[in-house]
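Dear colleague,

Thank you for sharing your sequence with our group. We've completed the structure prediction you requested, and as agreed, I am returning the results in plain text so they can be pasted directly into your records. Please verify that the sequence below matches your submission; if there's any discrepancy, let me know and we will rerun it promptly.
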Amino acid sequence: MAVNNENRKELFLRACRSEPVERVPVWIMRQAGRYLPEYQEVRAHHSFLEICKTPELAAEVSLQPFRVLGVDAVILFSDILVVAEAMGMGLAVPDSGPVLADPIRDGPAVSALRDFDPERETRFVGDAIRAIRKAAGPRVPVIGFAAAPWTLACYMIEGQTRGNVSRAKQMLAEEPRLVGELMGRIARVTADYLKAQVAAGAAAVQLFDTWAGELTPHEYGETELPSIQSIFDSLAGSGVPRILFAKGSKPILGPMAKSGADVLSVDSGTDLAEARRDLGPQIALQGNVDPAVLLGPVEGIRRAVAQAVEKTAGTGHILNLGHGILPATPVPNAQAFVAAGQAAPVTAHLGIG
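Please find the predicted structure tokens below.
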């Protein structure tokens, strides 16, 4: 585990800028959640949305992986669907998964969506970031986040998050202008939402694009990329790194590199060495150990970490998983992942560029 007084924030920011680092920073997507007994204890007394909307609880849950695992960054505990709720859709989160009331089916439903003031309707998000910063101190980076436009559009059209976005894909095929309008609305409010997180003290922001892999490279470039670019363009003057994660990223790495992101977070299907060669040294990479590796023996975890760091030569690389940590992951295995990353030697740069 890294030394407590180490300036993790500076380390993380240097990695985002592809500057030399003494070691790679490490954090884990979905690091605050069900695999942690500490989270389960909080969850036993509070609903999911109650935690998200109570800054003290959200901060506590966000900080648990920092205390237990020693990760180098704290990501806000929240949900991407609070933006949909703030836009006027009813949100419920039963144990079976989130549900949005009155899914988007036509133009009037898109028109009925509202812009919102993140300092009012979602102030709990900024307050949670402020609470995290106060507890963690100035040497620990806090990461804010939101859904990428296509992913949030999928959930707003489907009305739930059950792993099937066929209705959204059908709407995209039959009414591309309507879906484009929806993503434009999402992009506009998301930009303000992320700006509010930066104002609250987020050191970086990440867009999660869970359903990007459902788009062909052409669809991604023509349909979603402009909306992502508009979000990142609006944050260009903020000075914070902009991270873009896409599941199914390999076929769309080229368009993703044009998004304005400072860091591309890639899933386990992307070879980091190939991505580094194709993208060059100016865009940092995040990832991309298979989450299932953390279910296996510690030796395999250490080997996967070493391979990931070696493929990027530790430069412009933030070690992470290729997707969210699995709920069945043993805590000692998550600790081993973080420790292995923090101890991995950073070799000389591969001579790219």
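Summary note from our side: The two ends are 33 Å apart (CA to CA).

Kind regards,
the structure core
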